[in-house]
Structure formats: C-alpha cells, structure tokens
Amino acid sequence: MLAVLKSVLGRSPVHLECVHCCRRQRLLCIRPRHQNGQSRSYSMPTGDIKSLRSIITPPVSKIRNIGIMAHIDAGKTTTTERMLYYSGYTRALGDVDDGDTVTDFMAQERERGITIQSAAVTFDWNGHRINLIDTPGHVDFTVEVERSLRVLDGAVAVFDASAGVEAQTLTVWRQADKHAVPRMCFLNKMDKTGASFTYSIESIKEKLKARPLLLQLPIGEGKSFQGLIDLVSMESLSWSSRSNEDDGRRFKRKPLSDLMDQDLLQSAKEARNALLEQVADLDDDFASLMLEEYSEDCNLIPVEKLQAAIRRITLTRSAVPVLCGSALKNKGVQPLLDAITLYLPSPDDCTHDFMSWYKDDLCALAFKVVHDRQRGPMVFVRIYSGMMKAQSAVYNVNKNCTERMSRLLLPFADQQVEISSLSPGNIALTVGLKQTATGDTIVSSKASAAAAARRAVRSEEKTKDRKSQDNLVLAGVEIPEPVFFCTIEPPSVAKQFDLENALRCLQLEDPSLKVRTDPDSGQLILCGMGELHIEIIHDRIRREYGLETYLGPLQIAYRETIVCGSRASDTLDRTMGDTRHQVTVELEVRPLSEDIPLIEYSANLPSSVNSYKEAIENGIHGCYLTGSENVRKANPGTDDEFGNHDGRRSPEQSLG
Hints:
Oligomer: single chain
Strand content: 25-35%
Number of strands: 33
Helix content: 25-40%
Keywords: GTP-binding, Mitochondrion, Nucleotide-binding, Protein biosynthesis
CATH topology of the largest domain: Rossmann fold
Structural class: alpha+beta
Number of domains: 4
CATH architecture of the largest domain: 3-Layer(aba) Sandwich
CATH superfamily of the largest domain: P-loop containing nucleotide triphosphate hydrolases
InterPro entries: EF-G-like_DII (IPR053905), EFG_II (IPR041095), EFG_III (IPR009022), EFG_III/V (IPR035647), G_TR_CS (IPR031157), P-loop_NTPase (IPR027417), Ribosomal_Su5_D2-typ_SF (IPR020568), Small_GTP-bd (IPR005225)
Shape: globular
GO cellular component, one term: mitochondrial matrix
CATH class of the largest domain: Alpha Beta
Largest sheet: 10 strands, antiparallel
Number of helices: 16
Domain Tr-type G: 61-348
GO molecular function: GTP binding; GTPase activity
C-alpha cells in the first residue's frame, strides 16, 4: 500500500512524508516541495501520531480561532512567525526579508515581502489549540480580511508603535466591528526609533473610538526597549540584549518589587490602579468583589479573578486589552500568546441562533476556495455544529445541490494533514466540493436543512422574528465592487480558451476579481481592487498557467460622496399656454446612515406631492449618476441619502 501511494504521489508536486495507521485513525501527512527543492524545517514531526491525534480532537473550550490584522508593514507576518517558533511548530525563525516564512508561501509574497492571501495555521500553546489566520495588510486585498473575520472568534490588531493607527487599520477595525469580533491590540516595533507607547494609546482612543485596557507597560522605548511590566501579575519581564542569539526563548520574570527604577515602579503602580478602576467600571462582578472583599487593599485581589474580569470585558467588546513588544527583536510574543488563550473567546463563547436549529447536525460555512491543478477546488470551511467526515455527502443550501467530499484536511499553511473527521469549532480544508463557492452554507443533508427550517419556523412563532428563516443560509462574505479595470488579451486566439479557464479558476479563489466581456469590442475586461491586485493576477496567470497575457491601460471607476450634509430649495415658475405653474421643492442631502432608505420624505408633506414623487426621484437619480458640477470630473455618487422636506404647489393661475 505504501509503495502504491508513493508511486501515485511521485507524479504530483507533493510527496509522501509518512503514512501511519492505527485502530482509530488513519493519517496522511502531505508536505509540498518548494521550487528550490528544499522543504521547510517544521518542528512538529509528521510521524508523531500523538500530536496529530491531539490536533484532531481538542476540547472546544481549548480552541481559539483568531486572526492577525493590521496596516501593511505593521509586523503581522513577523509576529505570526514568532508565534509558530515559540510554540514549537517550526525549528527556525522565518524572516519576511529572506522569503522563508510559513504563511507567506506564494512566490509573489516572498518576492515582494507582503502578504497577498490569508493563510491558516494550527499550533498548540499551553494546552490550547490555536487556529490562526494571517491576513494581508494591503488595501487591495481587503476581501481576504473580510472573509477571514467572518469565521473567526477573535482577532489581534497589530500596530506600528511609531505610527499608531494607520489608514488600513481603520478599515480592518470597521470590518471587525461589523462582524462583532472581540479583539486585543499588540503595539509592535517598540524598539523602533520614534516608537511611542503614549501616542499609540491616544491614537487608538481618538481614531478607533475604542477603550484601551492597558495590561502592560514597556520598559524603555526605541533602542532602550528592554522588556515589559505585566500590570495584571505586577511582574517585570525582561529579555537580554542578546535576545537574538537565543531567539528570545529565555526571559526573566521578576516581582515588581525588585525593580530598581523607582520612577518606573511608581508609573506601574499608578497604571495598575487605573486598570483596576477601569475593570471595576466595566464589570459589575469585579466591582462587587472589590467593594465587598478587598476594599482595604485592592492589590490583594487574586490574579485569576482579575483575568476572568478582563476576559468578560473582552468578550462583550466593552474595551480592548493592549499589549506591547517587538516581534522582530523576539520580545513580548510569549505574553501575547498567553493573553490570546486567557482573554479571547473559544467557539463555546460565540453562540448563534442557527446552531440551535441544526442541533448536532453538520453546519459549516465555506469562506475560501483555493484551486489546485491536481486536486481541483479545495474549500476552507468553518464548522459550527456537528461532525464533518471525509468520504461523505454534504448538502449545499445556497446551490440546492448535494456533493461528495472526498478528502478532509487540516491546513498548516501550504502543508496539510489528512484526517477522517473533525469536530465543531475547527477550521478544515475539503477536497471534492466542485460547486461550492465562498459564502455557501454546508449541511449534512437536505433533510437536515428541512428539519432546521421547521425549527426556525417554531422559533419565529415564539419570538415573532420574521428573519429567522432567512438565517438558515449563514451570512456570507460581503464582496466589494472592483474599482480598477483593464483589458486582458491572450498571446494568440488559440490560447483564448486557456485564458478564460485560468480566469475562472482565479475567480473561484478570489471573489473580488471580476471578469466581463465588452459588448462592443468583445475584449475581456479584468476588474480588480487596485493596481497591485491586477499585477498579482497577471503574474499568477503567467507563473501558474504558463500564459503570457497582455494588459491594456489601467482605468479607475471613480466615485464621489459628500462629507457633510447640505440643504437647498428651488422654485419652478413656468407658464405653459395660458396657465402659470409654480412649484417649490426643498431637499437635503446627507452622508448615508445604516438602515435608512436612500430617499426619504418628510412626514408633514402635503398629499399633493405624492403625484410628483416619481419625477422628484428621477431627477435625484439623474443627478446622482452624473455627479457634481463643482468637481473637475463628474463621477457617480455613492453612500448618500436624500430627504425631501418641503414640496408646495401654488394654485394654477389663468393668464387669460
């Protein structure tokens, strides 16, 4: 059997590492060969059946599904690499500049030193299973962050301590708010010249409108950055100046009373008191504990009680814990991992209505599709309830079709471990679901979906929630409209079919990529989120599909919107024949708010205005499409709302 598997896999880009059989489980570990013929130095031996078994069946309360999000160059991938190294997943530290990181495995990512696709990795830390997704920071790949946050339970926002909140930080923070994802902040690059802990905290308050909960203070800033003060345990954590030699594995943890710097000690005591007061303000149970049992000396409160209160605050998103460090200098990453397991939610902490409708039946959401030229579409899914099993049929609620899943894999960036089943709360990679697309809901069978629908109807009757039945299809991933476009042509007419096939495969992976045909010229139009996005797609077609395509000039679909509201009125006074008509209309335009119609009418308008509503709305839409006359280029408007406050029609007057 082993010889047969080796002969089969020998003809593909992957090779067999090892096959282990036991009574309960059969595991196949697949590791891809890289272009230079070398494989990565993974610490977890693929033959370790015990560690693989622990991966398959972790307690749900010990699972953390988290994402790393930030502005570009804030240090997301470097932080992820340190997490993998300290957890024992890798034997050597990956470096973005050297192009040998685990999560940036695409050729374009290694050449450019940026993250293009979100990558999932799984590792252990202090008895917890962490499913981590490293997301891109470039605005062109915002959809990768969107679909990752859709299925994650928590997130870590990484900041450049010298820059604070940056442009893309605002975008990913809004995305996390939309999906109600609890998160914590990590002020990275504290060793960088110009790093400022105070400035970063103020930036979080002012720009993100968030309440930072300071759990650490830095010992020094810039080149003098040495370590941290843990305000929860009141200990100092220090790394040696030669932390790069031992990769930061060893650090000293001492009671704060041993701190020699009295000014720093006083600052730590003040920050600790502020932390206790803030936690008491946000958590009633902790406030009662302080008043009833520790009113004389709040510093005697057990660390476990304070940690539990911080966790409750984090889960309710009342505040965001803030930590600091320097991932590149190997300082502060281990305390960050501890905080992830202590404060971010497990799947048990995130409840959804649909889970009660499906009960123990399978319910999962497909959030990403990767096209493999040998294995076909590979679908990333988040399992919310029930067991997912390999070699089983599943029902796609969105497509109303049944498909057979041939293989079930655990993702480790570009490495996978084949398993036979996986429990709720995990992220899996499936093979064989050819009709499934990003945002589709996967259940065990059509009968299971019908049973869930009946339970939803009963729930609707009790709660009078008319939206219950719609929630049988899980909320998918919101895909933004592309803003850059250009023509794309194959090297010859004979390669037209190959180009169209390549674009279809890339669209399966990247839903923000759109392809359309110009009705006049018949040319293919490539639509993307930005210039870099188009460049990456062009390069992937050349590398992965062997097609030298030609791109036309890049064009931009401009949009304009208003910054603040404005009100204006106009009177039409016109004589038609022997009759004089006079109409006054007053309109207000405002930036669009949520859950408000695009055009609304004031409640005190006279009934005679109803006959003119169609004309009013046609005029508004016409103006909206052509744009403002006060800008050099008139472009379609977006995200505005109009209010009709007044409409008066004077009696018709005969001039005869």
